[in-house]
Structure to design on (111 residues):
């Protein structure tokens, strides 16, 4: 079962160079809503293995990437496709709502 792996400022290039879309959750240890989203993202990682990668980035420990994508609230999930951010979800939502946003973003043809 695929895990939701951690990325950092120094390893974020793996997200940008991925052959599959990557959903990155910007989170922090003190963030209660982040803990609510965690199990949902783990389910998505398992269910969409091979078509979507799921990663998490600790915003407190990785300020460079957090700033560069203008993350102001946690949790923030950014979907990257072809190295570009194509969808941003701010806040904790039920799985169905997250899936709906992902599905809509992933069905748009890439440029």
């Amino acid at each position: 079962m695929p895990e939701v792996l951690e990325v950092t400022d120094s390893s974020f290039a793996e997200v940008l160079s991925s052959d599959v879309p990557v959903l990155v959750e910007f989170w922090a240890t003190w963030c209660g809503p982040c803990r609510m989203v965690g199990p949902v993202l783990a389910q998505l990682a398992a269910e969409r293995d091979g078509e979507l990668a799921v990663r998490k980035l600790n915003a407190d420990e990785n300020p460079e990437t957090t700033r560069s994508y203008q993350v102001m609230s946690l949790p923030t999930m950014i979907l990257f496709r072809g190295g570009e951010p194509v969808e941003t979800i701010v806040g904790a939502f039920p799985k169905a709502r997250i899936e709906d946003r992902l599905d809509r973003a992933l069905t748009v043809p890439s440029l």
